[in-house]
Amino acid sequence: MAGSPKGYLKVSIPMVFGRLHIAPLLSEFLRDYPDIKLTLSMDDRVTDLVEEGLDMVLRIGALSDSNLIARKLSPCRSVICASPGYLKSQSW
Fold it and tell me: Is the predicted pLDDT of residue 9 greater than 70, yes or no?
């Protein structure tokens, strides 16, 4: 509590979110906390936190395992768009 953070931190984040929101902040984070050894995985696959030894993950959606602690960081709004011609061509 009295010193600066140090040690290993293994994090997994979604690819697009990581590129847009996390990657631009990494150099400042690592400069401010030089004793943190960060391993960052950016991919969209489903991960098992315990099996992969992850300390933290950022994901979009509901938490399926109630043994984990989740914090909502931001709303996620999605919109599906299609042209009228494409929709007519589909057999729903």
Answer: yes
Report the distance separating Cα 32 and Cα 4, nearest Å: 9
Name the residue among 3, 23, 12 with its Cα closest to residue 50. 12
Q: Is the whole-model pTM more than 0.85?
A: no
How many CA atoms within 13 Å lie on the side-chain side of 64? 7
CA distance 18 to 29: 14
> Where are any strands of DSSP class E within the chain?
7-13, 36-42, 56-57
**Token output for 26:** 């990494």
DSSP label of 15: H
Q: What are phi and psi of 28, to 5 degrees?
A: -65, -45
